[in-house]
Amino acid sequence: MYRNIPTNLITGFLGTGKTTTILHLLSQAPVGQRWAVLVNEFGRIGVDGDLIQAEAVDHAEVFVEEVAGGCLCCVGSAGMQVGLNRLIQSSKPDRILIEPTGLGHPAQLIEQLTGPYYDEVLDLRATIGLVDARMLNDPRYTSHPNFQDQLHLADVLIGNKLDCYTDADRSAFYSLVNAQGSAKKAAAMVAHGNLKQAYLDEPRLERIALFPEAHAFNTDTHHHHHGHEPPAGDWHRIEGAADGFYTASWTLPTDALFDPACVRQIMVFSGVVRMKGFLPSSHGHMRINATQGGWSEEALEQQMNPRIEMIGTDPLDWRTIEQQLRGCVENAC
């Protein structure tokens, strides 16, 4: 029987560093403990779950379950519940971390996790809300009801990517915190997801969503694709849209070598606002992680099935973008 498993949501809009933060938290897990992570992706082809499993530290046992194809709240009670139940049964965890997609509205998820089904199974503690202060002057983000409710429903508010901030960005974060009044248990700015584990044990406060009619409660109006992930090893594209954002995800050939600089140009000129994935290159296997505020490439020690996900705020010509992506294969004809 599983009772009162400490559980936290790690929320944040697109590109705020949720996965990096979870990896840092896993590095602080007490020796011998079993930590479980439930990861959600907006796109149908997941990236973050495999990354967490591959980079999780050795001194703690880490178990990962991924639910792709939309936010946990609109994949539906069944999708979330099946994934979470499987994770609990397989890992028998000492703690659970849940990472909803950046476009997820957390209200219905909180309602599910505190409802009768999980009432004695989970001990839902502080929701950690991440924000990139560089985006606080971008109305595409700040006017979005999911963005606003992610901040409103957070118990601990974290300005991540401090190493990239200007003085104006820091001031914007301070203004955000001041606007929240005394509603937060804690607020801080950090770099590289360097979050104190103690924040996880702050209590969760009961809050009512500012926009209860938003994404989580209008699940029948969304157009995510919920089929099986296509097989790795060839070109497969799956498109989706929800909440004013548009996505395309690809599995890629395992025998192709991509030029990361070429892929970066797609990010710069195509209207894509978020891109992440695993690419084989002549320099080895690479993880790419990009927002309009920055681009990073990281060499991977472990080989991953090649894949990439892109998100835009406007409908994009994914067919043309795929042609450009194919042109990034080294020695492509």
TrEMBL record:
Cellular component annotations (GO), alphabetically ordered = cytoplasm
SUPFAM superfamilies (UniProt xref): P-loop containing nucleoside triphosphate hydrolases
- TM spans (from-to): none
Q: Which SMART domains match?
A: CobW_C
Residues covered by the CobW C-terminal domain: 247-329
Q: What does this protein do?
A: Zinc chaperone that directly transfers zinc cofactor to target proteins, thereby activating them. Zinc is transferred from the CXCC motif in the GTPase domain to the zinc binding site in target proteins in a process requiring GTP hydrolysis.
Can you say what this protein is called? CobW C-terminal domain-containing protein
Instruction: Please name the source species.
Output: Candidatus Thiodiazotropha endoloripes
Kindly list the organism's lineage. Answer: Bacteria, Pseudomonadati, Pseudomonadota, Gammaproteobacteria, Chromatiales
